Amino acid sequence: MVSVQEQYDAYPYPERDPADEAGRLITGSPSHPLEIDHFLFQGQRDWSQPLRALVAGGGTGDGLIQLAQVLASAGRPYEITYLDLSVSARRVAEARAAMRNLAGITFVTGSLLDAPDHGTFDYIDCCGVLHHLPDPAAGFRALRAALAPGGGLGFMVYAPYGRSGVYPLQEAFATLLAEAAPKDRLEAARAVVAGLPEGHPFRTNPNLSDHLQSDAGFYDLLLHSQDRAYDVTDLNGVLEATDWRLLSFATPALYDLARLAPVPPGIDRITAWGVAEKLRGTIKMHVGYAVPADDARDVPKGRDRTLVPHLRGVGAVALGRAVAQGKPVPVRMGQVTTTLSLPRGMGRALAAVDGRRTVAQIAATSGLDPIAFGSGWSQVEHELCDWGLMLYSGLGK
Ligand SMILES: C[S@@+](CC[C@H](N)C(=O)[O-])C[C@H]1O[C@@H](n2cnc3c(N)ncnc32)[C@H](O)[C@@H]1O
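Above are the sequence and the S-adenosylmethionine SMILES. Below is the predicted complex in structure-token form.
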């Protein structure tokens, strides 16, 4: 049996070439500083104070490099600890940071189960790792113990329905190729997958592409020795059992039952999210944010006119123009394509979103009276914030 550490030493994940840092920055969720601020600090973090962050199971460094580079570019102080079992993955992450001259990162080879030994942190990133632990709850617990007061966790764990077809293959290969070395397992499994019969759930699942992208991706998807998926109920269960509270998913609209079916009166939010997950059927990972169980903080709302909105993945001017002209705004989010429904009168306001103006300043340029702006802005939040396209943060102030 190939251990998790042996796997990631043989195939550091994701496969990255440090030289590519010269030409592009990989961004995503969780752990973009704007997203961290929006979900965990109500959009009001004081960025003059250093962010003490732990990247737990940092792999080849995607989350680490995003966090450090965005903060460095914004001239904001940070201290990041990178922690991973795999020495090969660490080498790639270190080389990527060196390519970018990123300071302020401590690289540690070790287990996240020992996270509290490395300090306490305002923010913990743990992306694609906890579902690979023999006892994931022990991992959630260790991260909770490493959290500083007022801090929070950004996580990604696998979800079952979008990964349909994966687990029977993992089980089959675990039996078929138990004794082989990683390279031989990969070759043998590739041959089997190429010949899978028509109609096999893995062949018919359009949501999966990791196996097509790289050897590391194929191995991670189909040959992992330790891999489980969490549906919303299970995820909430393990979070609650380890003293966390699920604050929000990074794309709340995906889990918004009202967008999919009539909502039964009195349904609690976790049950509603779980039903939405089943109705969507294509969610292959849960990306979200968690806070300590006894922490009542919520995501910010622009009723607080001092907040600064940022658009992500859409240009303000083009969006504002399309909205003002009443044109549909199509959006593709992972497996989901949707059309945003934004009030025409909000075109001018949207064009003014630049990551510096407050909601109050945007309202003043919108040409709308306070009541019309207020109801329009609620709709903007419902669409843009919930699809992860607008975030509140003072990072750029
Ligand atoms: C799928 S990769 C994800 C890497 C990175 N977080 C990302 O999203 O790109 C999982 C990583 O977790 C690491 N890992 C697995 N178990 C770990 C543990 N107990 N402690 C620290 N790292 C671990 C592996 O070595 C591997 O680099």
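The pocket of S-adenosylmethionine is lined by residues 4, 8, 13-14, 57-59, 62-63, 83-86, 89, 111-113, 127-129, 132-133, 220 (CB under 6 Å).
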